Amino acid sequence: MTSDRPIHLAQALHGRRFLLSAWPWRALAYAASSVPVLAAPAVGVAVVAAPLLAVVSAVRQDRPVPLPVVGFLTVVAVALLALAPLLTVPLAAVERWRLRLVDPRPLPPPPNTGLAARWADAAGWREVAYAGWLGAVVPAAYTLFALLVLLDAALLAGPWLAGHADPITLGPTTVDTPGEAVPYAIVAVLLLPALGYLGGALVAGQAAVARWLLGGSADTALREVTRSRARLVSGYEAERRRIERDLHDGVQPRLTSLTVQLGLARLDVPDESPAAGPLAVAHGQAKELMVLLRQVVQGIRPPQLTDLGLAGAVRDLASGAGLPVTVRADLAWPVPELTETTAWFVVSEALANVTRHAGASRAEVRLAETGRTLVVEVRDDGRGGADPARGSGLTGLADRVAAVGGRLLLASPAGGPTLVRVELPCRR
Length: 428
Known about the structure:
The strands form two sheets. The chain has a six-stranded mixed beta sheet with strand order 3-7-8-6-5-4, with helices on one face. It has a two-stranded antiparallel ribbon with strand order 1-2. The protein has helices at about 10, 25-35, 40-60, 65-85, 90-100, 120-155, 160, 180-215, 230-270, 275-300, 305-320, 335-360, 395-405, and strands at about 170, 175, 225, 325-330, 365-370, 375-380, 405-410, 420-425. The protein has three domains: about 10-215, no CATH class; about 230-300; about 305-425, Heat Shock Protein 90 (2-Layer Sandwich), CATH 3.30.565.10. The protein is α+β, with helices and mostly antiparallel strands. About 60% of the residues lie in helices and about 10% in strands. The protein is built from 13 helices and eight strands. It is an enzyme of class 2 (transferase). GO terms for molecular function: ATP binding; phosphorelay sensor kinase activity; protein dimerization activity. Pfam families: HisKA_3, Sensor.
């Protein structure tokens, strides 16, 4: 069976074994660590909203608006907003680190700009927006979820609480005895899995907003490199015709002439001559070479894939990359031939780019099957800044991937790291 291991919490929620995995505990750790983190943003949101709250309170109580108080609070709120791009720097750093609890996918670091540029940088204001969301929306969501958990816990404890104190009121119903509380306790037990999924969805939503707002601008975020499939197919077809023409008009006539000359030479050399054996071997090799060239026209396939399989062929590539490369392969079944060949070329081109352009000290290759998709990831710790618009390497790679119905995604902020992720259909 194919490996279907989720790589982040939102993906794990779609699995039937979510509650039996480690993901609920990771979600709980993320939620618990959110409580002390959101305290400072919550105070900041309260300070910024204080002038409006003071005015609303005065109007509702039909009394004069305290202008000195409102003026002081407004000055404090404006000053806090003005300093917010600086004040949110440590919060954003902590949140990028915490995000790995529920979403270990690499998150591009913020642009390495000076303090003065924080006010002009969109990434700084996205961090401010995240702090505001963390201080205003997340506490309300967690409070509502905590009330649901407490209600479920009260229903579970109903059979032990009923009859020992005042009657328990549940909406229009009053519970006086343990027997009357038992059906509610059964309902509470049945709701426990729903609460588990609801809590996971709440944390996954928080993590998704964190990734969206802290993931950098459109220039550094993970983005899909797409190309025109029509141009792609016509380009590959033109290249195939060129190879056929070169073989037919250039290599094949010379090889045919060589084969004929060797055949004539064999006729002129007696069988008992010492040269007869080597000449026969050369004649046979020439004919085999003609067969091999015809196979090249039909489709190029690296021989390492045939001999070693995808994981072994990638390890063979890594051993000759010129820098330390770690290969992690989680492939439960052999990959279809076309997908396997595409994945090999992806790793080959990506490692070549790392060696030539990245200035990296190490790299990592990951191969994994997720459902019916083969995921290939190549990451390095180099200088980053890879841009498909500045060269044909990445766009050509995207062309090859698109030809088999896959997609290529790139994250390469200035200063690194760089991640190339390719998702290929893996249908059998």
